[in-house]
Model the fold of this input.
Amino acid sequence: EYVINDAGSQIDVLGRSAFLRYREALGEAIGEIPPGLYPGDYLIPVGQALAEEFGLGLLEMPEDEALAIVKDRTVDAMMAMIREDLALLNVHHDVFFSERTLHADNARKIRAAIADLTLKGHIYKG
Done:
């Protein structure tokens, strides 16, 4: 089983980083990648694919909607690369489990469990 880490702040940063590469693919001079975003060139093809698929469309919609689309497409692209790499290593998984589905399906239960653990003093915030 392969657990896809597709929930939380890392994915938000990945989405914003890919969105920046999308704007770059549309011809915007983005300059240096801002601190806190992923500077890797591996996101350039993702930005180009988004530009080909959506043109200016993502810029014309509310940011939260655009980022949701960008995050989905970026995770798909990253997983395609990961699957290719795993295949080259002759590593095959029967199940690819999305962490996001865990959060989406059980968000209320997770919040309740965290609250309970916090009340009992079992949560450490460092």
User: Anything to note?
Assistant: The first helix runs from residue 9 to 25. The chain is about 60% helix and 5% strand. The radius of gyration is 18 Å. Strands lie at 2-4, 96-98.
